[in-house]
Amino acid sequence: MKQILAAALLSLTLSSCHVVRFFTLNFADIKDYKKFPKVAMHKGESHFHFYTNTASSVKLPEHVPFKGKYYDFEQLLDKSGTVAFLIIRNDTLLYENYLHKYDQASIVPSFSMAKSFVSALIGIAIDEGYIKSVHDPITDYLPELDKKQFGPITIEHLLDMRSGIKFNEGYFNPFGDVAKYYYGTNILKYIRKLKVSRPPGEEFEYRSVNSQLLALIISRATHRPVSQYLQEKIWSRLDMEYDASWSIDSRRHKTEKAFCCLNARARDFARFGRLYLNGGSWSGEQIVPKEWVRRSTVFEQPKNGFLYGYQWWHNRTVHPLSDTAQVTGLRQVLTRKDKKGHVLDTVLVTPLNDFVARGILGQFIYVLPEKNIVIVRLGKNRKHMAWEPFLREVALMN
After folding, report:
1. Which residue has the higher pLDDT, 23 or 44?
2. CA distances from 299 to 158, 203, 351 (A)
3. Closest Cα to residue 377, out of 396, 393, 361?
4. Which of 44, 243, 278, 293 has the most crowded Cβ, counting Cβ within 10 A?
5. Using H for helix, E for strand and C for coil, what is the string for 169-189?
6. How far is CA 255 from CA 95, 113, 248, in A?
7. Whole-number Å distance between alpha carbons of 93 and 49
8. Whole-model pTM?
9. What's the half-sphere exposure (Cβ side, CA atoms, 13 Å) at 384?
10. 107-145 pLDDT, tens digit each
11. What is the mean pLDDT of the chain?
12. CATH number for domain 2-315+352-397, candidates 3.40.50.2300, 3.40.50.150, 3.40.710.10, 3.40.50.1760
């Protein structure tokens, strides 16, 4: 009887408002791929296999600080809620570990790592002529948006999270916009109600709606669902081991939650990292345009404090402002503020050459080109761990 009531409650909440689902379904959970309807993306006929390391040459950090204590590497993985950790160098799996009852075949939602996949599809769509340029106004593809408000916003503004679109990114606010897009059953309805809060290009503001609009532009330009385009152009061509899926808002509307919710396995996420490590090339075939990969992963000019560009995150070096005379090359003066907008300090920042796709629970595809390394970390939670610099430390050791 209890099981019947639980099933009835779940059915009711899935069909009711997003606020109820926020509380009943536990926002941003690693099992969320089971809770939402989804569309499948199928792998190709052939499979690419990473070599297995037999020399035990991997180097792992010891005495890692975490929440006021020190742990060895594998203790850290366990304590931090990690479910998968892979280190790949020169196509060889130096290290592969699954925890908390997960294994190689376990499905894990990407959360915001999906944004980097969307970026790749924009590059492909431009190369194929479906989209003219990153400088196109988004209203060319989204005519339902008011041209006076949204006309100045370009595709590149969306890619760099500099659109100025009003959007509440608060993940723990049941009335916020992220909750609407995550739990709502009609994303297009919310898009039609969007407003602009500031002119584009003024400020970096991480807003998931930018990625959702990019995916909608892809669908409009290519005349097919973004999940179908991903299957055709990437998933079926990277010799993936498994099929994947993309969660959608509802079976009625079938809009992919493109800012998140690509459901796949650790090794297949690693294959996407390998694709970008190799400049968009796979088995001699150019899957993502080489120039697009370069523009996505290498800063040509100062922007966003060298933290973000084209839907990818980056590590950076922070220098005191007094070092200005000694620091050469590409750099940016950055005023850092707290959450309330109060100025903390002014520093000098310079870019590093690694890049990473990341998701809210500490999902990461990390790439360090100089060492030919890809690292995948998937987790049940982020646990307030500074993962990006830690992943760089691990990569530099190997």
Report:
1. 44
2. 17, 17, 7
3. 361
4. 293
5. CCCCCCCCHHHHHHHCCCHHH
6. 37, 18, 5
7. 10
8. 0.93
9. 4
10. 999 999 999 999 999 999 999 999 999 999 999 999 999
11. 92
12. 3.40.710.10
Mean pLDDT of 233-259: 97
Angle formed at CA 355 by CA 354 and CA 358, multiple of 5 degrees: 145
What pLDDT, on a 0 to 100 scale, did the predictor assign at position 55? 62
> How is the chain split into domains, by residue range?
2-315+352-397
pLDDT at 220 over 90: yes
Handedness of CA 180, 115, 124, 148 (dihedral sign): positive
What 3-state DSSP class applies to 181? helix
Q: How confident is the model at residue 16 (pLDDT cuts 50, 70, 90)?
A: very low
HEC profile of 17-30? CHHHHHHHCCCCCC
Rounded mean pLDDT, 160-178: 89
pLDDT band, very low/low/confident/very high, at 19 (cuts 50, 70, 90): low
Give pairs for 276-283: CB < 8 Å, separation 24+: 276/120, 276/355, 276/367, 277/367, 277/369, 277/372, 277/373, 277/374, 280/120, 280/123, 282/237, 282/238, 282/239, 283/48, 283/239
Residue 171 tokens read as: 């993940």
Question: Helix 266-277 vs helix 290-297: angle between axes, to the nearest 10 degrees?
Answer: 100
Q: How far is CA 350 from CA 60, 183, 206, 312, 320, in A?
A: 27, 38, 20, 16, 11
Query: How many alpha carbons fall within 13 Å on the CB side of residue 368?
Result: 22
The neighbour count for residue 183, using CB atoms within 10 Å, is: 25
Instruction: Work out the percent of the chain whose per-residue pLDDT is above 70.
Output: 92
pLDDT of residue 359: 97
The number of beta carbons lying within 10 Å of the beta carbon of residue 86 is: 23
* C-alpha–C-alpha distance, residues 311 and 67, integer Å: 30
